[in-house]
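Saturday, quiet lab. Running sequence design on the structure tokens for the scaffold JK sent over.
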């Protein structure tokens, strides 16, 4: 694997995130009138251009926990360091955090172990674990599928332990691994439709939970019109919108801007799209001015280098 792929993924996450931060929570109608076409600043969170949020921070925290060998305790500790010590923040400030993640941080601070801290209710299926998963594409690429699934489940379950969140994270990482191995995006999409349902059944996952993902596992989502693509913080909406953006665009810039302009949870959708688009198109197709605007660009590239060499 080319070292640049590690750097590309992390830059892709940060770029998508930073594009979405200024318009987070804006609805689609607003963005049709005022589309994002470049990296801007301020807006929703009043942050300068190039500032990334919790999506990138938690991605980078997970990447750090993978260096020299992953443990669930290292990952949970990095989550706490981010919240309490501003670890891996863009400008030394935590300014955005999901409800489930915040609840789990409080639980962890009370001494509950990372293996028991995650919320398990159906209402806790926000996208807070999905947003941080992209470093596992690198870490798990050569591992057996059972190992991949079990580690993804363990990592998601630090915060989001419901099976819907776990499956969403697993699908995303598997899609990314397919791209990392050089497969064409529609080839990956069709392969997962064939292989994933059967594998999930081997893990005793219920048909009800698999059915939540029917649009990805059965349909041709690339044929769907935008008005039936939802972009809320619900994990299935985020995953579905992200795959739709990847399948219906042809370059990095188009993909991440399409994600942002869906509205609502703009930074998370675009950060996930950014990771996958980075695997397809590489850093050479990312606008140079965006790369240069990203906060802590050199630190992110160094992290990608260290992840590759770990």
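Result came back. Writing it out in full:
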């Amino acid at each position: 694997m080319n070292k640049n792929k590690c750097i590309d993924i992390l830059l892709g996450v940060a770029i998508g995130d930073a594009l979405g931060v200024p318009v987070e929570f804006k609805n689609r109608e607003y963005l049709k009138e005022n589309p994002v076409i470049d990296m801007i600043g301020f807006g929703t969170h009043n942050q300068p251009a190039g500032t990334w949020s919790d999506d990138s921070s938690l991605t980078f925290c997970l990447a750090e926990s993978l260096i020299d060998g992953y443990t669930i305790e290292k990952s949970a500790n990095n989550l706490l360091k981010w919240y309490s010590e501003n670890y891996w923040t863009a400008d030394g400030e935590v300014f955005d955090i999901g409800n489930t993640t915040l609840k789990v941080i409080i639980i962890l601070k009370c001494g509950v172990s990372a293996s028991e801290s995650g919320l398990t209710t159906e209402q806790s299926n926000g996208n807070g674990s999905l947003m941080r998963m992209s470093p596992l594409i690198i870490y798990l690429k050569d591992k057996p599928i059972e190992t991949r699934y079990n580690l993804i489940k363990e990592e998601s379950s630090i915060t989001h332990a419901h099976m819907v969140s776990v499956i969403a994270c697993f699908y995303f990482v598997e899609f990314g691994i397919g791209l990392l191995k050089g497969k064409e995006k529609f080839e990956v999409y069709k392969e997962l439709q064939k292989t994933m349902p059967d594998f999930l059944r081997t893990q005793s996952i219920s048909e009800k939970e698999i059915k939540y993902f029917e649009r990805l596992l059965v349909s041709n989502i690339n044929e769907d019109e935008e008005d039936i693509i939802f972009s809320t913080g619900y994990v299935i909406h985020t995953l579905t919108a992200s795959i739709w953006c990847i399948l219906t665009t042809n370059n990095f810039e188009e993909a991440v801007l399409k994600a942002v302009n869906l509205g609502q949870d703009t930074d998370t959708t675009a950060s996930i799209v950014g990771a996958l688009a980075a695997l397809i198109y590489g850093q050479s197709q990312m606008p140079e001015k965006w790369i240069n605007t990203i906060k802590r660009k050199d630190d992110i590239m160094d992290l990608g280098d260290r992840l590759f060499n770990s």
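Notes for JK: DSSP finds 16 helices and no strands in the chain. The CA atoms of residues 119 and 161 lie 5 Å apart. Ask whether to fix the surface positions before the next round.
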